[in-house]
């Protein structure tokens, strides 16, 4: 039986560890933070599950993944319906008939489509090549200016012209009066929070977990002591940035408990103007239909910032320059495939959602164990 080291107790690392232990392998998990669960970590404050690293809504159309994650928690029926606040004007998201009606007074899908057609004519039929062009071609110039440009440029610290089109295609555009942010078949929030999912995955006699341990403090020894290593940290850091640094986007979360019963009436409110320095405010109790302290609530302001050494690298910046550099790192990684598997958002430098991380980890398991 091979001895495994998993670097990072996030969702990828935990899924791999759980599956390896299920097959009788011994697994050591090391995690540099002082807790498990990576970015899906939640903590209870006054009966409210606080999402410590930003709003996390589980959504998927992959039935296998949905059944899989339901082994570890029971999910509520939460449906994400964020609202956008543009200088005090409130719009429904994602872009749907409610948004179009509020903005233009249109009532039928046909009227909304013709308004968008008229506005996208500024592109002169050009195939969208960046986020700005993609947004205008999907929803027209008014929505781009009010609900997309300011938010996007704050979030990514770059002009929307320099960002890849796929980022805005994450959001549905719908010609129905439906404020569900996702098109997926399954959606919810685990009752009792996300941390329990990872804790249950790691709760096996064959798995031992050490937190506050950084792989890079003893990289050579770890590589010598273990047969196989699953690495879910930053791929460029693993190779000591030898080909140059990949770019990441970081965030600063400002979380506070306030003596108010209901602060904003919704779990997520996006501030889409360019002047407000934060992108969104989360009011955590609304993920669980207001459950938790009466007369108290917990809110988090999310401030985007450029990643620098020492910050958490929350998002890969998947523009063409970084993707090309990642490809070169991936070639180095392939040469180490005998020893190391690179997985997860940072190991694969990919803007993965939770369900995609689970699917990717299960796929890695299949390959690793020849199934
Ligand atoms: P991580 O959770 O980052 O885990 C990697 C772990 O490795 C971390 O704990 C890190 O500390 C550890 N590590 C790194 N380097 C080292 C080292 N050198 N030594 C030891 N340990 C190390 N997904 C959704 O599906 N729905 C959402 O609503 C959603 N919202 C999100 C909101 C925000 C603000 C962010 C940032 C992400 C969101 N996601 C969402 C994505 C989701 O968080 C990820 O898909 C998932 O958590 C990735 O899991 P992972 O294991 O790849 O990475
Ligand atoms: N976006 C926007 N306005 C919004 C919400 C999102 O322009 O009100 C854009 C922005 O570029 C963002 C992208 O859509 O980065 C994807 O949004 P999502 O909510 O998926 O971002 P995440 O939750 O992953 O940060």
From TrEMBL:
Residue ranges constituting the UDP-galactopyranose mutase C-terminal domain according to the UniProt record: 146-351
Sample GO molecular function, one term: flavin adenine dinucleotide binding
Pfam families referenced in this protein's UniProt entry, alphabetically: GLF, NAD_binding_8
GO cellular component: cytosol
Matches recorded under NCBIfam families: UDP-GALP_mutase
Keyword Flavoprotein: yes
Keyword entries, A-Z: FAD, Flavoprotein, Isomerase
Signal peptide: none
Stored InterPro entries: UDP-GALP_mutase (IPR004379), UDP-GalPyranose_mutase_C (IPR015899)
Protein name as catalogued: UDP-galactopyranose mutase
The family this protein is said to belong to: Belongs to the UDP-galactopyranose/dTDP-fucopyranose mutase family.
Cofactors: FAD
């Amino acid at each position: 039986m091979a001895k495994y080291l998993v670097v990072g107790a996030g969702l990828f690392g935990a899924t791999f560890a759980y599956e390896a232990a299920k097959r009788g392998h011994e697994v050591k998990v090391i995690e540099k933070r002082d807790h498990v669960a990576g970015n899906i970590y939640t903590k209870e404050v006054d009966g409210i599950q606080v999402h410590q690293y930003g709003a996390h809504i589980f959504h998927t159309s992959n039935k296998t993944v949905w059944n899989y994650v339901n082994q570890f928690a029971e999910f509520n029926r939460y449906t994400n319906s964020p609202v956008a606040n543009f200088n005090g004007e409130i719009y429904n998201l994602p872009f749907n008939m409610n948004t179009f009606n509020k903005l233009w007074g249109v009532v039928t899908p046909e009227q909304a489509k013709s308004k968008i057609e008229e506005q996208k004519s500024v592109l002169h039929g050009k195939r969208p090549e960046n986020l700005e062009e993609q947004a205008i071609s999907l929803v027209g110039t008014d929505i781009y200016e009010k609900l997309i440009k300011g938010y996007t440029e704050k979030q990514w610290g770059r002009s929307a012209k320099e960002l890849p089109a796929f980022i805005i295609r994450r959001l549905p555009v719908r010609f129905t009066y439906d404020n569900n942010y996702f098109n997926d078949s399954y959606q919810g929030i685990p009752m009792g929070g996300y941390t329990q999912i990872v804790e249950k995955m790691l709760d096996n006699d064959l798995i031992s977990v050490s937190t506050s341990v950084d792989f890079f403090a003893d990289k050579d020894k770890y590589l010598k002591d273990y047969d196989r290593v699953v690495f879910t940290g930053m791929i460029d850091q693993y190779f000591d940035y030898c080909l140059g640094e990949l770019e990441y986007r970081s965030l600063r979360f400002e979380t506070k408990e306030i003596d108010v019963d209901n602060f904003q009436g919704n779990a997520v409110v996006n501030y889409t103007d360019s002047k407000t320095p934060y992108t969104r405010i989360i009011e955590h109790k609304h993920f669980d239909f207001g459950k938790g302290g009466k007369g108290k609530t917990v809110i988090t302001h999310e401030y985007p910032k450029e990643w620098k050494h020492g910050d958490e690298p929350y998002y890969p910046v998947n523009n063409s320059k970084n993707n090309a550099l990642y490809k070169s790192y991936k070639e180095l990684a392939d040469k180490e495939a005998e020893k190391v598997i690179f997985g997860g958002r940072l190991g694969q430098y990919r803007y993965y959602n939770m369900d995609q991380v689970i699917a990717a980890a299960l796929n890695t398991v299949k390959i690793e164990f020849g199934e």
